[in-house]
Amino acid sequence: MARRLSGTFKSLGASLHEPITHQMITGIMSGNIYATDYKVAQKFYGEVLGLERGVDMDEQACFFHVGANKFGIYLEGGAKPALIDEETSRASFTFEVESASALYARLQAAGVHFVQTEPRDMTKGHYWFQFYDPSGNILEAIGGK
Questions:
Q1: Alpha-carbon distance 33 to 134, whole Å?
Q2: Nearest 10 degrees: CA dihedral of 64, 69, 71, 75?
Q3: What pLDDT score was predicted for residue 18?
Q4: DSSP bridge pairs for 74
Q5: What are the distances in angstroms from CA 141 to CA 57, 87, 98?
Q6: Distance (Å, rounded) from C-alpha 145 to C-alpha 128?
Q7: Do residues 132 and 85 touch, judged by C-beta distance below 8 A?
Q8: Distances (CA, A) of 68 to 29, 71, 80
Q9: What does the angle CA 53 – CA 120 – CA 105 come to, to the nearest 5 degrees?
Q10: Burial of 45 (0-12, 13-18, 19+ CB in 10 A)
Q11: Which of 52, 70, 103, 126 is the most buried (most CB within 10 A)?
Q12: pLDDT value at position 77?
């Protein structure tokens, strides 16, 4: 994989040994979620996770606030389900929460499926777990007990 990426960078004319100074990344605007059923996903992110709905982009897309970020999550419906197995690459993101156990209990009561059977102690008072959204995307949460 590294050889293939290295060749890709070279074909773009970029040097992996020179720092990029003219176009530095300054942050992440949003995490993007592509859902099979927009209405089900919208209800999950709004009602189950309790995120405030922001700007509607069209009838199949909107933003949800995450903390002070009004564009924290971009949700778009109409995606085809991906075939996922142990060899598949995918991206995920982690929600920072006050209490991992409280969110776990809330999600469990809503019938959400989990990767772990309970939040894991990640040391120094941080607890973490992974769960699935209605489209099968894996999301993560970390916070206090």
A1: 11
A2: -30
A3: 61
A4: 32, 63
A5: 26, 23, 10
A6: 9
A7: no
A8: 12, 9, 31
A9: 45
A10: buried
A11: 103
A12: 95
pLDDT, tens digit only, all 145 positions of the chain: 344 444 444 555 555 566 656 667 778 899 999 999 999 999 999 999 999 999 999 999 999 999 999 999 999 999 988 777 667 767 789 999 999 999 999 999 999 999 999 999 999 999 999 999 999 899 999 999 9
pLDDT at 91: 75
Rounded Cα distance between 67 and 51, Å, is 9
Give me the residues paired with residue 141 across strands.
Answer: 95, 129
pLDDT at residue 81, as a whole number: 80
The residue count for the chain: 145
Helix H, strand E, coil C: the string for the chain is CHHHHHHHHHHCCCCCCCCCCCCCCCCCCCEEEECCCHHHHHHHHHHHCCCCEEEEEECCEEEEEECCEEEEEEEECCCCCCCCCCCCCCCCCEEEEEEHHHHHHHHHHCCCCECCCCCEECCCCCEEEEEECCCCCEEEEEEEC
C-alpha 88/C-alpha 39 separation (Å) is: 27
